[in-house]
């Protein structure tokens, strides 16, 4: 296939060529970045929380009438007892927050009591001896809390745990050169001994700004005696729906002065996960829809313009056919022509894609796009161009030679 | 003449129904995607109090100093909330026209009817000036007076929704609401007031929240009864004392603050006051770093707090990119369509039609495509806005809505954009040489 006659012919409809190339460039730039955003979101949504999620239930309870700290302790103990006795319930504990809840508090943890001098930020989970088995966390080193190590903690009381359990990632940051087990760390202004290390436990927040310490969690042996408590309930997976429907009424039956919201007071962990990642999922869907519309539009545009060019050049095609060009020659001509235009488009588009990514990085703290996305986009658009132009080109190849003799 | 051109355009569009449909679809989808994104962007980026936002200010005092910066993420920004000491000192000195310290509370209300479960409500502990400062509308009654602030009185302003729930919507002024076991006298019922973003306390609400603002009660009273803070508490160091009193004595930040300053002079005087306050505290030995305070007006404050989610901005940008790509596409198709009719143009020109007439004819044709695409875009936008609740968090999706302004904008964007896309093809059409066209036929 000779390129020069094609280039010469292209000079006669510059505007159309430029428009198609621009279209391809814009499509490449947007689709690459959209795919990259989708991939990032999917990776984020795929992050394991470290929790055995199926069969886990969350109840948010709020005591009404402002009971005193001591009262809350006995109310909570009674609740835990009631819940544990419910059929279908395997284990339960009370806490301030849980992974993916998007609430809770974080603290600096390090080697000195000075809080402005910490090694890492860590999420603080109040726990008891049932936490590991309720959440299904994997203890890789050390031991669990003992029941006698769990203390009550009133509102804004000083937090100074004697013992803590940390995640493997946090242990590595605190003691990069050896096991952190049995060593001390300062999460308050008094030292705490690390008695156990769990494999993985995600922090409550999924926000990108906290991604750097997303696996740095600490379990503290406290029962938080404040008005709002979350009960985490491990059920037999097949009985979770049943327990979920009964739990609210069961708790109200023991004590009326509380609030468990009918709408969202009781949630399965699957619902918690869906809510936590809703905006990521939404963004992925949105980018997907926009990419599909864009690719379809571009393909339709190529079909439209190529059809027009074929219609415009029927006479010339007839002449070429009459002079001995085969159908394959004509087909090849249009396919090559499209390939040349698309190649110009993808070169420009590749630059645009990187430019757009740089701009997104600057404005929205996005990551740098992997070159694979641009290359895949280039391959996809070249293929798309060829597919789109095939029908008009095939029609062109079927223009009979006799066309050359008409109306000349 | 216009009628004639419309007729010509209609005939031309009918002649190639495939191409026409394609263009209409492209314009429709492009416009709908960008308008749907825009409706979300518009909902979250709007000024919640446009008549007053430039007169509302949020002061920031650098009570943590350079060592208290978190992870280096917010550069050299002072903390975005206040500790109790500074908030109360600034309320006492009372240098702005109106001002209020506030913190988020989430008490529970025990209904008088013992058969009903208690309900949990959200709200803020504020000073009386909060209401006139933010032009809060009342359905019944009014805000409590400054004397109630001073007396730490058990008074309350409730939302009309809570009034509906507790008192069946009747005028409840003077009645009482039982909060955490104590009776609060209702002084006012709000008239459907729920600004989005929740601009007076973006630190604790993130701006957009599904949480209701049901109760407002005196800050002084809430502190007195030890009503816990339901918002964020950030500490640079561990409080020395324990309990709620320990929190009040600490440098932990958990209080939002807003002030009304009616002109530039007042704003700069207030900034001087803030810096002076800082220097006094420094002289007293509280700080050992240089002055680094901020006084932002509301729009600048919302911007610095990144209230508009970056996902919304990215979506809008990408959707606008899609619109541009669609227009480039339409331009290509119009070019093909117009140039195919070179001979017709040649005849019209030879019979004396000026270039202007050709311009008119083809721009009207482009406009017609735009209008039809716009009508399709209108329907798709309506569907799109309905569907955003599937993909966006509830607190944001519920704000996006279709109104007349959005519909008019959709149509205008479709028509104008398509005509813009038609400009070059029209220009090319008007340059067709009549002699050449007549000869080849």
TrEMBL record, chain A:
Transmembrane intervals: 15-38, 283-310, 330-360, 372-394
Domain MacB-like periplasmic core, residue spans: 34-248
Localization: Cell membrane
InterPro entries: ABC3_permease_C (IPR003838), MacB_PCD (IPR025857), Macrolide_Exporter_MacB (IPR050250)
Membrane topology note: Multi-pass membrane protein
Chief localization: membrane
Domain ABC3 transporter permease C-terminal span(s) in chain numbering: 289-401
Family annotation (Pfam families): FtsX, MacB_PCD
Entry keyword set: Cell membrane, Membrane, Transmembrane, Transmembrane helix
Homology family: Belongs to the ABC-4 integral membrane protein family.
Protein name as catalogued: ABC transporter permease
Source organism of the structure: Dyella acidisoli
Gene transcribed to yield this protein: ybjZ_9
UniProtKB/TrEMBL annotation, chain B:
Lineage per the UniProt record: Bacteria, Pseudomonadati, Pseudomonadota, Gammaproteobacteria, Lysobacterales
First-listed, main subcellular location of the protein, grouped into a coarse class: membrane
Compartment(s) where it occurs, according to its Swiss-Prot or TrEMBL record: Cell membrane
Keywords: ATP-binding, Cell membrane, Membrane, Nucleotide-binding, Transmembrane, Transmembrane helix
Domain ABC3 transporter permease C-terminal: 317-434
Membrane topology, record value: Multi-pass membrane protein
Transmembrane segments: 21-41, 314-336, 357-384, 404-424
GO molecular function annotation: ATP binding
Protein name, per record: ABC transporter ATP-binding protein
Gene: ybjZ_8
Record-linked Pfam families: FtsX, MacB_PCD
Annotated MacB-like periplasmic core domain residues: 20-271
């Amino acid at each position: 296939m000779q390129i020069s006659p094609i280039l010469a012919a292209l000079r006669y409809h510059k505007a159309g060529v430029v428009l198609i190339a621009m279209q391809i460039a814009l499509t490449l730039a947007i689709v690459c970045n959209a795919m990259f955003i989708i991939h990032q979101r999917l990776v984020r949504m795929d992050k394991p929380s470290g929790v055995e999620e199926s069969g886990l239930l969350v109840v948010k309870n709020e005591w009404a009438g402002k009971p005193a700290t001591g009262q809350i302790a006995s109310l909570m103990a009674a609740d835990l007892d009631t819940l544990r006795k419910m059929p279908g319930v395997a284990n339960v504990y009370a806490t301030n927050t849980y992974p993916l809840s998007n609430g809770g508090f974080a603290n600096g943890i390090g080697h000195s009591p000075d809080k402005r001098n910490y090694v890492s930020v860590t999420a603080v989970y109040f726990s008891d001896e049932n936490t590991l088995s309720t959440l299904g966390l994997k203890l890789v080193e050390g031991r669990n809390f003992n029941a006698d190590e769990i203390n009550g903690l009133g509102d804004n009381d000083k937090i100074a745990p004697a013992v803590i359990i940390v995640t493997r990632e946090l242990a590595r940051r605190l003691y990069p050169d050896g096991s952190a087990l049995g060593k001390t760390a300062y999460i308050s202004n008094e030292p705490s001994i690390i008695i156990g290390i769990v494999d993985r436990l995600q922090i409550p927040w999924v926000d990108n700004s906290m991604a750097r310490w997303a696996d740095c969690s600490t379990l503290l042996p406290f029962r938080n005696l404040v008005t709002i408590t979350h009960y985490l309930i491990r059920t037999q997976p097949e009985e979770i729906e049943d327990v979920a429907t009964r739990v609210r009424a069961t708790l109200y039956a023991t004590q009326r002065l509380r609030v468990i919201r009918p709408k969202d007071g009781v949630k399965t962990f699957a619902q918690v996960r869906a809510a936590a990642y809703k905006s990521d999922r939404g963004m992925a869907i949105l980018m997907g829809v926009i990419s599909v519309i864009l690719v379809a539009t571009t393909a339709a545009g190529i079909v439209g313009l190529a059809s027009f060019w074929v219609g415009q050049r029927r006479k010339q095609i007839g002449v070429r056919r009459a002079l001995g060009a085969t159908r394959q020659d004509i087909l090849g001509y249009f396919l090559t022509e499209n390939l040349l235009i698309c190649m110009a488009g993808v070169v420009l588009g590749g630059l645009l894609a990187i430019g757009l990514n740089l701009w997104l990085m600057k404005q929205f703290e996005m990551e740098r796009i992997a070159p694979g996305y641009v290359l895949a986009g280039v391959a996809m658009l070249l293929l798309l161009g060829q597919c789109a132009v095939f029908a008009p080109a095939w029609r062109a190849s079927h223009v009979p030679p006799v066309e050359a003799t008409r109306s000349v | 003449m216009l009628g004639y051109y419309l007729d010509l355009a209609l005939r031309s569009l009918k002649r190639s129904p495939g191409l026409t449909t394609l263009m209409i679809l492209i314009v429709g989808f492009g416009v709908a995607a960008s308008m749907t994104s825009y409706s979300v962007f518009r909902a979250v980026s709007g000024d919640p109090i446009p008549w007053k936002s430039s007169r509302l200010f949020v002061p920031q005092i650098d009570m943590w100093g350079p060592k208290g910066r978190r992870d280096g993420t917010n550069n050299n920004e002072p903390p975005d909330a206040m500790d109790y000491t500074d908030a109360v000192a600034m309320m006492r000195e009372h240098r702005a026209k109106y001002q209020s310290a506030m913190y988020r509370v989430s008490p529970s209300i025990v209904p008088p009817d013992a058969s009903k479960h208690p309900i949990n409500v959200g709200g803020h502990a504020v000073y009386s000036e909060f209401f006139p400062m933010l032009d809060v509308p009342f359905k019944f009654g009014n805000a409590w007076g400054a004397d109630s602030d001073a007396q730490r009185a058990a008074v309350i302003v409730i939302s009309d929704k809570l009034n509906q729930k507790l008192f069946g919507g009747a005028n409840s002024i003077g009645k009482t609401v039982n909060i955490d076991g104590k009776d609060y006298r209702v002084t006012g019922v709000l008239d459907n007031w729920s600004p989005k973003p929740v601009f007076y306390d973006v630190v604790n609400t993130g701006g957009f929240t599904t949480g209701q603002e049901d109760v407002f009660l005196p800050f002084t009273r809430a502190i007195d009864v030890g009503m816990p803070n339901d918002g964020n508490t950030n500490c640079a160091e561990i409080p020395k004392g324990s309990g709620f009193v320990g929190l009040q004595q600490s440098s932990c930040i958990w209080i939002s603050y807003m002030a009304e300053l009616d002109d530039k002079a007042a704003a700069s005087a207030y900034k001087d006051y803030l810096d002076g306050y800082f220097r006094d505290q420094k002289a007293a030995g509280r700080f050992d770093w240089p002055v680094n305070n901020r006084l932002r007006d509301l729009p600048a404050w919302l911007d610095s707090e990144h209230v508009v989610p970056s996902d919304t901005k990215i979506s809008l940008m990408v959707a606008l990119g899609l619109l541009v790509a669609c227009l480039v596409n339409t331009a290509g198709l119009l070019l093909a369509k117009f140039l195919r009719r070179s001979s017709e143009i040649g005849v019209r020109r030879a019979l004396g039609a000026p270039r202007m007439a050709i311009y008119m004819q083809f721009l009207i044709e482009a406009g017609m495509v735009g209008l039809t695409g716009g009508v399709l875009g209108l329907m798709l936008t309506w569907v799109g806005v309905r569907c955003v609740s599937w993909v966006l968090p509830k607190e944001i999706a519920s704000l996006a809505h279709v109104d007349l302004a959005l519909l008019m904008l959709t149509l205008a964007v479709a028509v104008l954009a398509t005509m813009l896309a038609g400009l070059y093809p029209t220009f090319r059409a008007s340059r067709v040489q009549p002699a050449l066209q007549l000869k080849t036929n």
